[in-house]
Specification:
The complex is a heterodimer of chains A (113) and B (110). Chain A is built from no helices and 11 strands. Chain B is mainly beta and 110 residues long. Helix content of chain B is 0%, strand content 60%. In chain B, a hairpin with a 4-residue loop joins β7 and β8. Classes of the chains: A mainly beta (113), B mainly beta (110). Chains A and B meet through β4, β5, β9 and β10 of A and β4, β5 and β10 of B.
């Protein structure tokens, strides 16, 4: 059975541009969470979606948005990119919204120049 | 002060040594995760704990809820164990938000 998949694996953008990152959860998982990991630091929580609704949001500006589709896949969108948005973006899926183990994807490495 | 503190930040050991990585947290939690991250970024979940002790192969994780402390042990360490080990906690309310430590970089020398 396939694990969590993310696309693209690497991405280079320039300041001010927009980016869309994609995540497909493990089959049967209904919850997707997004995390940002800046080099040398632990991941930081961005969003959690469960059954297509936002269940949690971390301390990120409104330039960051996300959504979850009927097939439980998810997109993370970042507008007006800044140099500081350069990071590894991790997606994790779980069966439900609370008390479940999370399974991480390989991440998308975003570089903003 | 970070909600999740790990020690040590870096650890270098000889192959075969017994390894201990510590995690302390300051909030009430419903679960604690130990994760492994290799160069390149991919994260693998090793354990999810809410009490007691779990063992998987050469890896052992323990948690003391009263003391808000967890340890990850590796027995008979091997160079392939070289990675960053991250502790993450899930607070006592119903979503999956994890708060992560900054990780412990483990290097095992042959």
């Amino acid at each position: 059975d396939a694990g969590v998949t993310q696309s693209p694996t690497h991405l280079i953008k320039t300041r001010g541009q927009h980016v869309t990152l994609r995540c497909s959860p493990i089959s049967g998982h209904k919850s997707v969470s997004w995390y940002q990991q800046v080099l040398g630091q632990g991941p930081q929580f961005i969003f959690q979606y469960y059954e297509k609704e936002e269940r949690g949001r971390g301390n990120f500006p409104d330039r960051f948005s996300a959504r979850q589709f009927p097939n439980y896949s998810s997109e993370l969108n970042v507008n007006a990119l800044l140099l500081g948005d350069s990071a590894l973006y991790l997606c994790a899926s779980s069966l439900g919204a609370g008390g479940y183990e999370q399974y991480f994807g390989p991440g998308t490495r975003l570089t903003v120049t | 002060k970070n909600e999740v503190e790990q020690s040590p930040q870096n650890l270098t050991a000889q192959e075969g040594e017994f390894i201990t990585i510590n995690c302390s947290y300051s909030v009430g939690i419903s679960a604690l995760h130990w994760l492994q991250q290799h160069p390149g970024g991919g994260i693998v979940s090793l354990f999810m704990l809410s009490s007691g002790k779990k063992k998987h192969g050469r890896l052992i994780a323990t948690i003391n809820i009263q003391e808000k402390h967890s340890s990850l042990h590796i027995t008979a360490s091997h160079p392939r164990d070289s990675a960053v080990y991250i502790c993450a906690v899930r607070p006592n309310f119903g979503n999956e938000k994890l708060t992560f430590g900054t990780g412990t970089r483990l290097t095992i020398i042959p």
